[in-house]
Design a protein that fits this description.
Elements (H helix, E strand, L loop, with lengths): L10 H15 L2 H19 L9 H17 L7 H10 L3 H4 L13 H17 L5 H19 L4 H4 L8
Helix pairs in contact: 1-2, 1-4, 2-3
């Protein structure tokens, strides 16, 4: 989140946090936040084939979700865990529903996590890398390979020294 760019914060992680807070503190605030996330994800998924956020029908729905979110963040909730989550998110409201503004933006980072799963499994099985340089090289090569896959670029081309992702 330190890179100057628009980011969609992963809603699956926030939904999990909300569920914990709902159970731990009987939080209505966390429940309302979770429902906004779940309903907005469902809305986009149900309409993904013809989804166009600039069309009046979709724009009105998106604005409805944003209005509910703004209302929820008008007042700091009183309990410890909900207050902690509120403080983390209060300045990032635009990043919570950014996925509604473009068809290609996902609501979660699950695809990125799946892309890393094989590397994490390798590290767990082998215990570790033998050197920091080995770990660094593996990270760089893995990143290039996963980026090439996502952009439908030949992996061998992507690994060549004079290749550049557009």
């Amino acid at each position: 989140l330190k890179i100057k760019a628009q980011h969609q914060i992963c809603l699956s992680h926030l939904i999990r946090d909300c569920k914990y807070i709902e159970e731990a503190e009987k939080s209505k605030w966390a429940k309302d936040l979770r429902l906004i996330f779940e309903e907005s994800i469902k809305y986009k998924n149900e309409n993904i084939e013809k989804y166009n956020p600039l069309e009046k029908e979709y724009f009105r729905e998106i604005e409805g979700f944003k209005k509910r979110l703004r209302f929820l963040f008008k007042k700091n909730p009183p309990q410890k865990e909900e207050k902690r989550l509120y403080n983390q998110l209060v300045g990032r409201q635009k990043q919570l529903l950014l996925f509604l503004e473009a068809k290609e933006i996902p609501a979660t980072n699950n695809a990125s996590e799946r892309a890393l799963r094989n590397r994490v499994t390798k590290r767990k099985v082998s215990g570790c890398f033998r050197s920091e340089m080995g770990a660094y090289c593996n990270d760089v090569i893995s990143s290039i390979i996963e980026t090439a896959k996502k952009q439908n670029v030949n992996i061998l081309d992507a690994l060549s020294p004079d290749f550049s992702f557009a």
